[in-house]
Amino acid sequence: MTPLQLLLILLSQVLLVGSQIIIKHAVNRTHEQPRPWPRIVGGFAAAIAGMTLCFFLWLGFLQKLDLSHVFPFEGLSPIILVLGASFFLGEKVQPRAWLGIALIAAGIALVWLS
Amino acid sequence: MRMNSSAARRWLLDPHTQVALTAALATASEMCLKRGALDTAHLPRLIDWLGVSALASSWVWLGIVLQLAGFASWIIALRRMPLHIAFALMSVLHVTIPLGSWLFFAENVSGLRWVGITLVLAGICVIARPASRLEEQA
After folding, report:
1. Is residue A43 within 8 Å of A22, Cβ to Cβ?
2. Residue ranges of chain B with per-residue pLDDT less than 70
3. So what's the ipTM on this one?
4. Angle at CA A59, nearest 5°, toward A54 and B30?
């Protein structure tokens, strides 16, 4: 795995988590009255674009790398969610979450070296 | 023994059945995507790191259909199961997908890689609860 591929895998996981959160916000706003259509449609469009890009990046990885080498990187998504919530929303990272982050990060490092 | 239809229906809609189905569909989907990606790896590409050319393979389209079916069963599972439980159970993919890679594509999954995968799996089970709480708030 080249450094560029590693960077792209990390970026695609960030993009995926971001798209999922955007789509959830767009769905939540459909309950508002009057419905903020431009924001709802914009949110869906951005999230679908993000997920489509992730899907093509994933196919690109599968064309060049072993599936068993790239799949463990999917474990990054809960890390991104927890650290993202801490950074953007000021949510405290629980000790239990730090343990999970350490285990996943160590596991991915070993997979990356393998 | 003959199972009556309401028992069969209850079994089918049980969240554990649906999580197992989601995991099976997701694993099958990755196998199809990998097969399609391998079949198209030699095709010329417009952007080197995007796998758009893989769409030329029917395997990839089958993989997309399976992924959508998996999404449907995931939604059914989540109606009756807390997100953090379903999330932790889905970490089984970190075993089934490398096993499938070894079985169907003869990938050489080394001992070091399995150790790493085991750590990732353990970490997901540990982080499932705090991550799911944030996901539900988001």
Report:
1. yes
2. 1-3, 138
3. 0.88
4. 100
CB contact under 8 A, A99 and B126: yes
- In chain A, what percentage of residues exceed pLDDT 70? 100
Q: What residues contact residue A87 under an 8 Å CB cut-off, 6+ apart?
A: none
Contact B127 A85 (CB under 8 A): no
- Least Cα distance to B26 among B75, B58, B83, B67 occurs for B67
Identify which of B97, B55, B84 has the alpha carbon closest to the alpha carbon of residue A96: B84
Give the nearest partner residue to A68 out of B48, B54, B101, using CB atoms. B101
The pTM (predicted TM-score) of the whole model is 0.88
Residue type at A26 in one-letter notation: A
B124: CB partners within 8 A, 6+ apart:
A75, A78, A100, A104, B87, B88, B91, B94
CB contact under 8 A, B54 and A57: no
Give the up-direction half-sphere exposure of residue B20: CA atoms within 13 A in the CB hemisphere: 7
Segment (H or E) for A91: none
For chain A, the maximum distance between any two Cα atoms, rounded to a whole number of angstroms, is: 54
Among A57, A104, A114, whose Cβ lies nearest the Cβ of B127? A104
State both tokens at A39.
Answer: 């924001």
Q: How far is A86 from chain B (nearest CA, A)?
A: 10
Contacts of B51 (CB under 8 A, 6+ apart): A56, A57, A58, A59, A60, A61, A62, A63, B37, B40, B45
CA–CA–CA angle B74, B78, B80 (5° rounding): 130
